[in-house]
Amino acid sequence: MIHASRNLKVVFGLFVSFTEIYFAKTADAQIKVVDLEQKNTINSNICTSTENSQPEFIKVANLEENNITLSNVCTLANIEGEDPNSQQLEPQLGVEELERNQISPPNSQQLEPQLGVEELEPKDTSPIKKHSSVNPNYFIPPRIVPDRMIRPLTTTIPLNGIVINHLTKGQIVEGGSFSDNQNTNLDVNALVKFNSQIEESLTKTNIITINQTGDYLQLQTVRKSRGTIVTTKEPRTLLGTHLQISLTASCLNSQNPGDICTYTPGLKIDRYDPDTLLATRFSQTSNFGDLVTPESLAAMSEPGFQSGANGQEIGIDQFYPNIGSLSGNSYGVKTSISRKEEIENTPAVIYSQVRQVLRVNDREAVIGRTVRGSAFILNDENTLINTALQLGSKLLPDAVPSIAESPLRVQSKVNNNLFFAANNVRLPANSFTFYHAGIGRSRNLPPRATNLNQVPPANFNGIWLGASPIIKRTSSVIKTRYEQIGSRIDIGSGSGEGGRGSNVSYLSIVNGQAFSTATLENFYTQVYLNNFSQDANYVTTSKAQEETNYVPHISFTGNITGTQDVFRYYAGVLGVEEIKAYGGADFTKNSLNGWTFSGGFIAYTNPDVDYRTTVTGSVSKQIPFNTNANLVLSTGVNYAFGIKTSRNDFINSFKVGAQVNLGNLWFGINNTFGDVLPDSIDNTLTTNFGIIFNKNFTFTAYYSPINDNSTLSRYGSGVTFKLGRNQNSSILTLSWSNNEYNYGLDSSGNELGTNENVFSVFLRTNL
User: Which alpha helices (H) appear in 187-288, and where do they start and end?
Assistant: First the structure.
């Protein structure tokens, strides 16, 4: 049931939070504390695909272009704290289990989920709400199950970057990041549950059905654009000149012997390009042979260059502030550089309806999962086609699995791998779901199973339809200009003026005809030339721009999940203007003696930096010291094909690492070899450290003594505070990183680069 007053308040709170920030979206110079932390186990404990995350804030991994590993997957063997030899094979299916209210976290170490077989019998006397009608086809007709009787493992579902279960009421993650060189970045990622319920029934053909439904509203801010402006200032010494010339004499073919005419055209510069300081427009103030007025003649005889009087302008007057330049100026020779980053986010509102149907008989269990979403992304250029896709997906059916009837009593030992397989599905990263439907199947746990090897594998296959981000990247020099500083300095000049009897002579050539002071009567000439220099900076501004829009995306995916291994396969198509089709597979295998192997391959048509044909592989070994201490050794390789890389797009890598875990303290070291693969991340050595002081306070830090990459994070730290003692208490995260951006050498051989400190504050609140 929807509680109107309560939910209206929550929805209003979500819209108010538009101005605040979520931990999961990225600028290139920001670090998440979760990235700084090096967990005490090599495997993730979250049993959902990490490809559902929404990474927008750039992480250390992005700054260093670390090895891209396969998404974490869920097996019984890689749950934190799981004893490989554990014999806890009793099912979580019985109602006795449910009535104890032992609600376990998603990382439950039990091998079988609960359903409530004993409770679902005719003798049932539990307080569970029943429907009033009696159906002769049921031992127990459909009825609503209280939340306390269901463990979260069986109801955990990934939803647009957030993992939910039937206990989820809502969550808001908000915060901000700031630095001197970046605009303040605000974002929010919030979810609120409108309603949900779990209904169970037991038929007389011995089939248990558990039907989970829920409606959720999400508010997120996603990246719309990111622009990086880099400005360099190169010291220059500008050279300039000022030329002023006039020549007057007796007019040719004039009936009045006293008339004086000009023997040069009147030319002057009246417009300059403010960036290049070059002349862009000349004006002609007089013509060759124009009669010069007596007032102008009198003015021109005064000392200094005079062009005339009473509006008459005679002669050539041209000022050139830039006829060339020399490297360096009186302030130095070193080029300076600055970097500015502008990020624009846009809100996205998503309303999702979730349905999960679980059915069990005496031999097997099946699960069907359906997610329907309506997403609106403000200012997205593909809104129309995405809306049409959403409307069309409403016609697609729910994934309702079928299972055979049986004369035998329902088998209570349901296989946990079925739920893991449903959550190991590969969902496109950073995407919004319009429709997701899949069906999984597994054999039930053998009644007398005593170890993990006896647990059957499960499979899950489905279709996903939604919108995924496509980033258009452009890079260009948007402006070059001279910035004048200081005053002009004369470096050489000469001048002279006069008539016959002076030591001044001049030759004027107009239209191929020469006129010399040696042959002209009553001539008077002015010749002034001044050469000068001026300190300046040659300023170059370039911009790299990223524009993100969401395009239709359809994906087919499946997996086979065992107790110690997972194999996934997938194929899909996305795009509007340029279609990208892809296919791939990956695997993860965990051994009982601490080895973990993983590998994968995905191939794209029309690959780019974000969607690239890639081969990955990794191996790790956990060496235990005691129950609270171990050493983890790891190595991994990543190689991409068929893309054009720029200086900041290198993604190939070969890495080795080691981490020592000593209870609440850990220390790790990782090295990337830059000379092994082409277009590889450069040599990088990074150390990290972390300590859990108590349940409410964790500190992490990292330092990279060797890092030859052009974009890197040299060092940083973070702290996490849990604001309370309850499991759902708010969590405050503070982080700091020092980031460097290197741009090679200037013309004098000096290194070009800039440095910034980025601070982030995030708060996660559970509703």
Answer: none
Read off the pLDDT of residues 616-650 as tens digits, 9 standing for 90 and up. 999 999 999 998 999 999 999 999 987 765 555 67
For 663, left (φ over 0), alpha (ψ -120 to 50), or beta? left
Rounded to 5 degrees, φ, ψ at 87 are: -115, 25
User: Over the Cα atoms of the chain, what is R_g?
Assistant: 38
Distance CA 45, CA 61 (A): 20
CA 409 – CA 412 distance, rounded (Å) = 9
pLDDT score for 19: 33
End-to-end CA distance of the chain: 17
pLDDT under 50 in the chain at which residues?
Answer: 1-46, 48-71, 79-114, 116-128, 130-132
Tell me which residue of 330, 329, 333, 292 sits closest to 311, measured CA to CA.
Answer: 292
pLDDT in tens, 413-430: 789 999 999 999 999 999
**Type of residue numbered 611:** Y
- Tokens 């779901």 sit on residue: 433
Supply the pTM of this predicted model: 0.79
pLDDT digits (tens, 9 = 90+) for 184-212: 888 899 999 999 999 999 999 999 999 99
**Number of neighbouring beta carbons within 10 Å of residue 489:** 11
Can you name the residues that pair with 216 across neighbouring β-strands?
193, 352
What the block records as the tokens of 447 is 């009644």
* Assigned token pair, 370: 């359906």
Determine the Cα–Cα distance for residues 363 and 354; give it in Å rounded to an integer.
27
- Listed in sequence order, the DSSP H helices in 399-518 are 417-423
The closest alpha carbon to 458, from 220, 171, 156, 112, belongs to 112
Rounded Cα gap, residues 693 and 502, in angstroms: 96
Please tell me the distance from the alpha carbon of residue 54 to that of residue 42, in angstroms, as a whole number. Answer: 22
Alpha helices in 58-155 (DSSP H): 60-64, 95-99
Q: CA 420, 426, 428 angle in degrees (round to 5)?
A: 145
